[in-house]
Amino acid sequence: MHDICMYDVIIIGAGAAGMMCAISSARNDKKVLLLEKLPKIGAKLKATGGGKCNLTNTLKIEEFMDGFGRNGRFMSDALSVFDNKKTVEFFKSIGVKTDCLDGFRVFPDSHNSGSVLSALEDEMKRLHVKIICAYEIKKIEVKDNKIVGVDDFKSKNVVIATGGLGYPTLGAHGDGYRLAKIYGHKITQLNPAMMPLHVKETWVTNCRADTIPKAIVQVNLPKHKKLKATGDLIFTKTGIRGPVVLDFSREITPLLKKYNEVPLSVNMINGKNEEDIRLHVKKNSDKNILEIIVMLLPKSVALELLKLCQIESTCKYKNIDGIKRDRLIRTMAKTPLTVTGHDGFSKAMITRGGVSLKQINPKTMQSKLVKGLYFCGEVVDLDGKCGGYNLQWSFSSGYLAGELIK
Ligand SMILES: Cc1cc2nc3c(=O)[nH]c(=O)nc-3n(C[C@H](O)[C@H](O)[C@H](O)COP(=O)(O)OP(=O)(O)OC[C@H]3O[C@@H](n4cnc5c(N)ncnc54)[C@H](O)[C@@H]3O)c2cc1C
Q: Which of 33, 46, 48, 175 to mutate to test the pocket of ligand 1 (most atoms within 8 A of CB)?
C-alpha cells in the first residue's frame, strides 16, 4: 500500500501550470501524481481566449517581462529555459500546430482550446501521469521544514499550482494562498484584475453596439496621470470592457480602494487633440453638427456627447454658441468617465498579487522556506497583460519546476 502511494512529485492543481509541470517532470522519468479539485482537468484553460486559447505571443523575453510590470524580471530564468518559441515547439511536438494571424497573439491553429487540452491530456496519459480529479486536499505534510507528502500520498516534492481567485466557477478559490501561508509564506495584497469596469455615466448603455478602435484611456487623478492605455473599447450596460479595459483594470482596482471613484479621460478619436478637432469642424462647418462628428465617432457615441453638451444634433456648427462649442470639443478630446466599481473576482480573468516572490527561488520555483515545496503559475505574485502573457508564464514556470525536481 505504502509503495503505491510514493511519488517523486505531487502537483496540486491541473491547470496550465500544473499540467505542464507534470509533463516536464514525467519526461524526466519521474513518477507524478496530479491532484485536481474539480471533476475535470483544465477547466480554465478551456475557457481561455474566448474558447480559442491565446497560448502565448511573439514578444522577445525583455519586452515580455515588461508586460508584467515591476515583478517581471523574476521570470527571466524560467523564460530562458522555456520561452514562447519553446512553447510553440512543445505544442507542435504533442500535435498542436499554432498560428499567429495578427503577428502577435499565438493560438492553436484549430482556434479551439479543446484541442490544446486533449493534447496535454494524451501526453500525460502517454507518460503515465497519475491524475485524480474531484480530490479535495486536506493537508500538505511537512516535517523539519521538508515536504513529506499530501494526505496519504508520500513524496519529497509538492508543487502548488492552484491558480488565483478569478472565476471561482473554474476552480479558483485561493487554496494555494492558504496552503502557502500555513508554511510561513507571505501573500501580497490580492486584487481582481483583467475585468470589465462599472462607470457612473449612464449614457454608455446606449452605445453598446459599437467598438471604439484604439481608444486612449487615462486616469484623471493628479498623482496618477501617467496611467494610460490604448486599445479597443466597448461599452456595456453599466460600464466599459474590451482589451484596453482588461489591461487597465489591474491599475484601477488599487485606486478604487483608495479613492472610491476613479475619474478617467478617454480619447475615442485616434488621439486627435482639441486643435485637430477644431480644424476638422471648421473644414466642415456648413454641415450639421451630427454629420461632422460621425466622421470621427460612431453615431451612438456622437449623439450621447451632443446630449451631454446640450446641443441639438441638427444644429449647424456656426449656429452653436461659443461656450457649447468649446465644451463639445473638450468632451470629444477627453471624454470623462468615472469608474465606480467592478464585479470583483467573479469576472476577473487574473489575480493581481500572490505568493511573495521574495520567498521563491526564481531558478527553480522552489520555496526558500520549505524544502521540496514549489509554486508555479498564477498563484505567485505575477500578473501580465492581455495577449498570451499569463498562459506563457504558467507554461514557463510549470516547465521549469517540473524539469528540476529530483
Ligand atoms: C475567461 C478567461 C480567459 C483567459 N484567457 C487567457 C488567454 O487567452 N491567454 C492567457 O495567456 N491567459 C488567459 N487567461 C488567464 C489564464 O487562464 C491563467 O493565468 C492561467 O490559466 C493560470 O494557470 P494556472 O495553472 O496557474 O491556474 P489555473 O488554470 O486556474 O489552474 C489551477 C487549477 O488548480 C485547481 N485547484 C485549485 N485549488 C485546488 C486544490 N485545493 N486541490 C486541487 N486542485 C485545486 C483548480 O481547480 C484549477 O484547475 C484567461 C483567464 C480567464 C478566466
A: 48
